[in-house]
């Protein structure tokens, strides 16, 4: 009211008002600076002292019974690991904050997530790159410990006799992905281990193996984030990688019932090989996966060979006839066949199954399926038209638009193939002010003209592999 009545606020009143707003989560303070030029660092630290609540003022509720933790040295031990750093000399460093109790050097603590005890060695306080050994770290303080084996960022360390789990850190889902491949054979041997250390340091990065395309995918919050991570792989860990646009994990399925015989007969000087199966393939609803059934009567295929047929089918569906993608949403029925009392074997029936599956698949109207994503885009209202126009070029189905305090929330379903570089596009369209999230929804048939191009590309890649 003093301000609204035209009176000047004192510095103390401003400081007190800002501190009250921050403590009650009404304000988010934004400060400017440049760490590499050493500008603004001291002012940032002063602002933390002046405006952030002291640990003694904060209470944290934990557990189902709502136990209240205070910054009390005599309280139960509760410390949260908020950062992990791979030091080339010391090994893994875990940065933690003590909320309650006291963390002692040369002690044992309990990790409720992993259910394991951790041995705590020497504790340190950090000042820049310098480490100062200390006997203990009390409530409200930040400390560092080396070489924890079963604890990662977001874990709680506590007393085994008084288990406590502090609220963890919720990380945003990554939005930008690249396929990473090692530059050399030496890089290949180290890549898996180094990627896991990279993700341990920065949990907003994710690494996964996409088995349908055979690629290792590194995902982050944007193009710059992933580029810096790749540079760190080289500079810090000494592993060179080549990045590329990830392949889309397409699937194949069928549209009609088909029957085919698979017969494998090989006669050599000694014992031969003989397997004969009749298969029927039936389409299933989207998302149903794979089913196997047998309708054998009169022992046309002996019972001991039926598991070999099922195993052969599970292998065969890993690579479809159109572009070599996994086959889904089919039911395969073994309904007839024949055998040889001497020459038949599990291997012969597996090979016969592969042959029969391929023939039946070709006759069953095979089609390509593509992953469809649920996408939510939040942008300032003035960019709504541009964003909608861009989504329409991506074969998007807009499900709805909601206006919220000057922003538009657009919900749409979009093929993953069209969203590979959307983080960069959206930033360009909205002056960096748009954000989006996406998650997998379902698989749908690829339009014929696009499917043809995908199949042709897969054929060329196969031919190149064969030449090598």
Keywords:
9 helices; 5 domains; Alpha-Beta Plaits; 468 residues; elongated; alpha+beta; Elongation Factor Tu (Ef-tu), domain 3; five-stranded antiparallel beta sheet
Give the overall silhouette.
elongated
Give the helix/strand class: alpha+beta
Count of DSSP helices? 9
Quaternary structure type: single chain
Task: Please tally the β strands and state the result.
Answer: 25
Main beta sheet: strand number and arrangement? 6 strands, antiparallel
Q: Provide the residue-averaged pLDDT.
A: 90
Strand order of the largest sheet: 9-8-11-4-3-12
CATH architecture of the largest domain: 2-Layer Sandwich
The CATH first-level class of the largest domain comes to: Alpha Beta
Helix content: 25-40%
Name the poorly predicted regions.
Answer: none
Which radius of gyration do the C-alpha atoms yield?
A: 30 Å
Structural domains: how many? 5
């Amino acid at each position: 009211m003093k301000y609204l009545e035209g009176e000047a606020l004192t510095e103390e009143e401003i400081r007190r008002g800002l501190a009250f707003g921050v403590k009650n989560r009404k304000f988010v303070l934004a400060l400017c600076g440049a760490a590499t030029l050493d500008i603004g660092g001291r002012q940032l630290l002063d602002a933390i002292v002046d405006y952030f609540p002291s640990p003694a003022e904060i209470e944290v509720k934990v557990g189902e019974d709502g136990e209240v933790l205070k910054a009390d040295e005599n309280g139960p031990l509760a410390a949260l690991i908020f950062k992990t750093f791979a030091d080339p000399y010391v090994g893994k460093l875990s940065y933690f904050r003590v909320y309650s109790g006291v963390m002692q050097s040369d002690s044992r603590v309990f990790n409720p997530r992993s259910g394991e005890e951790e041995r705590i060695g020497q504790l340190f306080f950090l000042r820049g790159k310098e480490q100062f050994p200390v006997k203990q770290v009390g409530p409200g303080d930040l400390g560092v410990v080396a070489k924890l084996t079963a604890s990662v960022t977001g874990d709680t360390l506590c007393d085994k006799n008084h288990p406590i789990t502090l609220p963890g850190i919720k990380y945003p889902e990554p939005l930008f992905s690249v396929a990473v491949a090692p530059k050399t054979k030496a890089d290949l041997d180290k890549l898996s281990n180094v990627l896991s250390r990279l993700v341990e340091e920065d949990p907003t990065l994710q690494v996964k193996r996409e088995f349908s395309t055979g690629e290792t995918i590194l995902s982050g919050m944007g193009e710059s984030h992933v580029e810096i991570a790749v540079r760190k792989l080289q500079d810090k860990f000494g592993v060179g990688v080549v990045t590329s646009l990830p392949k889309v994990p397409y699937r194949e399925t069928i549209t009609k019932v088909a029957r085919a015989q698979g017969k494998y007969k090989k006669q050599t000087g000694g014992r031969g090989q003989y397997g004969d199966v009749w298969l029927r393939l039936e389409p299933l609803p989207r998302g149903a996966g794979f089913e196997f059934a047998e309708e054998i009567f009169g022992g046309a295929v002996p019972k001991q060979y039926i598991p070999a047929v099922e195993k052969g089918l599970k292998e065969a569906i890993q690579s479809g006839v159109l572009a070599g993608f996994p086959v889904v949403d089919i039911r395969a029925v073994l309904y007839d066949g024949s055998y040889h009392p001497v020459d038949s074997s599990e291997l012969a029936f597996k090979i016969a199954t592969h042959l029969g599956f391929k023939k039946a698949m070709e006759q069953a109207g095979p089609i390509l399926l593509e992953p469809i994503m649920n996408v939510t885009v939040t942008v300032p209202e003035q960019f709504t038209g541009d964003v909608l126009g861009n989504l329409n070029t991506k074969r998007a189905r807009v499900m709805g638009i909601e206006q919220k305090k000057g922003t538009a929330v657009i919900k749409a379903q979009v093929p993953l193939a069209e969203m590979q570089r959307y983080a960069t596009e959206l930033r360009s369209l909205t002056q960096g002010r748009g954000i989006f999230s996406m998650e997998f929804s379902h698989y749908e048939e690829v339009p014929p003209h696009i499917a043809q191009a995908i199949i042709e590309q897969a054929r060329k890649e196969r031919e190149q592999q064969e030449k090598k």
